[in-house]
Design brief:
Elements (H helix, E strand, L loop, with lengths): L2 E5 L5 E6 L2 E5 L16 E9 L4 E7 L3 E8 L1 E6 L4 E5 L3 E5 L4 E6 L6 E8 L9 E5 L11 E4 L23 E8 L4 E6 L3 E14 L2 E3 L4 E5 L6 E20 L3
Antiparallel strand pairs: 1-18, 2-3, 3-4, 4-11, 5-10, 6-9, 6-11, 7-8, 7-10, 9-12, 13-14, 14-19, 15-19, 16-17, 16-18, 16-19
Pfam families: Pirin, Pirin_C_2
Keywords: Iron, Metal-binding
InterPro entries: Pirin, Pirin_N_dom, Quercetinase_C, RmlC-like_jellyroll, RmlC_Cupin_sf
C-alpha cells in the first residue's frame, strides 16, 4: 500500500560544526545518528550553507553517487582526476566515487553559497570514478520539470519533462528540478514499484493537498499495483523544488 509522509523543515537536524558551515540533514550523517538512515537508494540529503572562503577541503569518497545542486552563490569543485570548475545557481555537479576519488567543494566567491548535497547508493560497488557537470539557465526549469540527472532505468512518461539529461547515475533513479511562478500546476503518476523524495527549496508547494513550506520535504511511496497520482501546485510566491524518483525496495 502506498503512503506519503510530510517532513517539516523544523524536524531536520541543524548542524553548525564550524564558522563557515550550516547544514540541515534529512538523514543520519556524520556525528548525527538520530534520523532515518536512508529512503531506498537515497542515503544523504543535506541542505548546506557555506560562507565565503569556507568549504569542504580535500577528502575521499568511495562507492557513492554524489551530486550537488546549487541554489545560491557559486560552488567550486576540484578533484583528483583533474577537474576544476565553479558553477552558479541552477547547475549540477556529479561525482561517481566508485573505486575511490578525492575532491573538494569550496565557496571562493563573495556571499553565501547554498546547495543541496545528495548521495545515492550505487547499483553495485567498484565502478570507475567519473565526474560530470551541467550548466543550466532558469528557462530550462521554468514552469516545467527539468531532468537534471538520469539513471539506469527508464525516464517517467511525464508531459512536463524537458529533454533527458546526458549525465547518468549508477542507480535506477531520476532527478528533476522545477522553478515555478505562482499557482503553476504539475500532474504526474508515480508508477507502481516506484517512490520519490520531494524537497521544496524555495517558496511553497502543495502536494496532493499538503502544503510544503521552504525546506520542507515529502516522502512518497506508490502503491505496488496502482501507483500514485501526484498533483503539485506552486504557492502564491512560486515554488522551487527537487523530485528524486527511484525504484522502491523489493
Amino acid at each position: 500500500m502506498g503512503y506519503s509522509r510530510h517532513i517539516p523543515a523544523s524536524s531536520l537536524h541543524v548542524s553548525k560544526p564550524t564558522w563557515w558551515l550550516e547544514s540541515r540533514f534529512h538523514f543520519s550523517f556524520a556525528n548525527y545518528s538520530d534520523g532515518p538512515t536512508n529512503f531506498g537508494a537515497l542515503r544523504v540529503l543535506n541542505d548546506d550553507l557555506v560562507h565565503s572562503d569556507g568549504g569542504f577541503g580535500t577528502h575521499a569518497h568511495r562507492n557513492a553517487e554524489i551530486f550537488s545542486y546549487i541554489l545560491d552563490g557559486a560552488l567550486s569543485h576540484k578533484d583528483s582526476m583533474g577537474n576544476c570548475e565553479a558553477l552558479p545557481r541552477g547547475c549540477v555537479q556529479y561525482l561517481s566515487a566508485g573505486t575511490g576519488i578525492t575532491h573538494s567543494e569550496m565557496n571562493d566567491s563573495e556571499g553565501t553559497c547554498r546547495f543541496l548535497q545528495i548521495w545515492l547508493t550505487p547499483d553495485c560497488t567498484g565502478h570507475a570514478p567519473q565526474y560530470g557537470s551541467a550548466v543550466h539557465s532558469k528557462a530550462d526549469r521554468h514552469n516545467r520539470l527539468q531532468h537534471l540527472l538520469g539513471g539506469t532505468g527508464r525516464l517517467p512518461d511525464w508531459s512536463s519533462v524537458a529533454k533527458r539529461s546526458s549525465i547518468t547515475l549508477h542507480q535506477d533513479a531520476n532527478i528533476f528540478v522545477s522553478e515555478n511562478d505562482a499557482l503553476v500546476e504539475h500532474a504526474m503518476e508515480l508508477g507502481p514499484g516506484r517512490q520519490a523524495y520531494l524537497v521544496n527549496t524555495e517558496g511553497s508547494l502543495g502536494v496532493n493537498g499538503t502544503t510544503l513550506a521552504a525546506r520542507d520535504a515529502m516522502a512518497l511511496v506508490a502503491d505496488a499495483k496502482k501507483g500514485m497520482a501526484l498533483r503539485l501546485r506552486a504557492g502564491l510566491n512560486g515554488a522551487h523544488f527537487m523530485l528524486i524518483e527511484m525504484a522502491a525496495p523489493a
